From TrEMBL, chain B:
All residue ranges annotated as the Lipid/polyisoprenoid-binding YceI-like domain in the record: 41-177
Family annotation (InterPro entries): Lipid/polyisoprenoid-bd_YceI, TTHA0802/YceI-like_sf
Protein name: Lipid/polyisoprenoid-binding YceI-like domain-containing protein
Any Pfam family the entry gives: YceI
């Protein structure tokens, strides 16, 4: 009797084994599924452009890429009647940014309206990754300096070179939360070479908030805001705010925005935005950033 | 009783027949590249980490690759490719599953065969027939070939402004070198 039982068990066991092996040999894709290792863990960058709107994003350009950057701001004067073509005033910042390595880039720029020359180094410390070596954030350091070249910047200050210099240090931290939504916070320290009044600080602490929401394959909505914790006291300032649309195609990246700041260099727009965001003149600025990206190296030839 | 014994032996034989692992060969560093030729711009990308497996008994074949491992001539192109075109955050892989028709693993040297199967990319499946060359150098198999596929078949959105920069038909080249698969 027991022998029969053993036989029965053996019998069924063998049948099962056969079935099992047979089913394994069936699905080749499942085998590949187990073999596939995402060693890169690459995810698409949180921000495609090096700027969210007016402020820097965590994104840096790769090695041997030159970015030609032109930013314009247009605004109207409060007078009722104006016969200007398009807008009463405009400011343009022209800048070049070059990727020294895949993580480090260097930029120089000049702005027409406030006559600032600026330069910066931007270093991408950590890149967000998924998979085995997952990193939750992008972290980028920014050190920028600006030189105010206007003929009489402030009548109160001694007119020397160091008095015209300002420095901005930023720690940019961003995360791509979903495939559509990215968020950034930017703790900022600013040192200004001069103070317009005795009451004003020369060192400022600020916090920036920025976000990007992808609404189409090439289209995204962006917004940015900076809060200064110890604002200038001798005149009223407001946090710079922008709401914009990015159009990201090919080698040309375009940004259109509505903002209350007409300055385009960190130390000025963060601490010295004199208008709040509303739809009245001269508070409302229309902004337009155009980036043209030139690649000087072929990634395929490197190997 | 005798009948039972006979059945058991028969089953055992059949079982061992099945148990003998079907001979499979795998390629872990397959090369897949694609080209888009237009008068405005040529776009080229390469992937050197494509996976493929062939069952030598019945000629069934599978290919799987991660879209984010493609390397482009232009660094920014990789970002556009992954974010705006192929959407690799949502569709990380492209897979192919099919059969090499009239495949005979015992033939030494070269044989040209049609591979028929389904390519799944960007969430869209398409039936393909690919002419390919199979080399057998003493059990070391090399599979290579070229085919063309249409961008619009995979529901990939090209903005009208860039219609001139990206070809409607993309040329795909592949080369896989296989080694015996043991799991």
């Amino acid at each position: 009797m027991s022998l029969m039982k053993i036989k029965k068990i053996l019998f069924t066991g063998i049948i099962f084994m056969g079935c099992f092996h047979f089913s394994i040999s069936q699905n080749l894709l499942e085998i590949l599924e187990n073999e596939q290792k995402d060693t890169l863990g690459y995810i698409t960058p949180a921000f495609k452009m090096t700027r969210i709107t007016f402020g820097h994003s965590t994104e840096v350009r790769s090695k041997n890429i030159l970015e030609v950057f032109v930013a314009n701001r247009f605004w109207d004067l409060p007078s009722e009647q104006s016969q200007s073509f398009g807008a009463d005033r405009m400011s343009t910042r022209f800048a070049l940014e070059y990727g020294i390595s895949d993580r480090l880039s260097f930029g120089v720029g000049a702005t027409t309206f406030d006559r600032l020359w600026d330069s910066y180094l931007k270093y991408n410390l950590v890149t967000q990754k998924k998979g085995e070596k997952a990193t939750p954030f992008n972290i980028t350091l920014l050190q920028s300096g600006s030189y105010n070249s206007s003929s009489r910047p402030y009548s109160l200050v001694v007119n020397d070179f160091s008095g015209r210099l300002s420095f901005t240090t930023q720690l940019l931290i961003s995360r791509k939360i979903s495939s559509d939504f990215s968020f950034q916070i930017s703790p900022t320290f600013i040192h200004r070479g001069f103070a317009a009044s005795e009451a004003d600080d020369q060192n400022f602490f600020a916090m920036g908030f920025g976000a990007r929401y992808k609404i189409g394959p090439h289209l995204s909505i962006v917004s940015e805001y900076y809060k200064t914790f110890n604002p200038i006291k001798s005149f009223d300032t407001y946090g710079p705010f922008a709401l914009g649309v990015n159009w990201e195609v090919g080698d040309v990246l375009l940004q259109f925005m509505l903002t209350n700041t007409r300055n385009m260099v960190e130390d000025t727009f963060i601490t010295q935005t004199r208008n709040n965001f509303n739809f009245r003149n001269p508070n409302l600025n229309f902004g337009f950033n155009a980036t043209y990206v030139i690649h000087f190296s072929n990634r395929l030839k490197k190997k | 009783m005798r009948m039972n014994k006979f059945l058991l032996t028969l089953l055992l034989i059949i079982n061992f027949g099945f148990n003998e692992k079907p001979e499979q060969v795998i390629s872990r560093q397959g090369k897949v590249s694609f080209f888009s030729y237009t008068s405005v711009e040529n776009i080229k990308a390469e992937n050197n980490q494509a996976l493929s497996i062939i069952n030598l008994e019945d000629g069934s074949i599978a290919v799987s690759m991660l879209m984010n491992t493609f390397v482009f001539e232009k660094a920014l192109m990789k970002e556009h490719f992954n974010e705006s075109y192929i959407e690799s955050d949502i569709y990380p892989k492209a897979t192919f599953e099919g059969r090499i028709l009239k495949f005979d693993s015992s033939i030494k040297g070269e044989q040209t065969r049609i591979i028929k199967g389904t390519l799944l990319m960007h969430g869209v499946s398409n039936e393909l027939e690919i002419k390919s060359k199979i080399e057998n150098n003493d059990g070391k198999y090399i599979l290579s070939g070229t085919f063309e596929t249409l961008v619009k078949d995979y529901n990939i959105n090209i903005p009208p402004l860039l219609a001139g920069n990206i070809a409607k038909s993309i040329e795909v080249n592949f080369k896989f070198e296989y080694e015996p698969y043991e799991n």
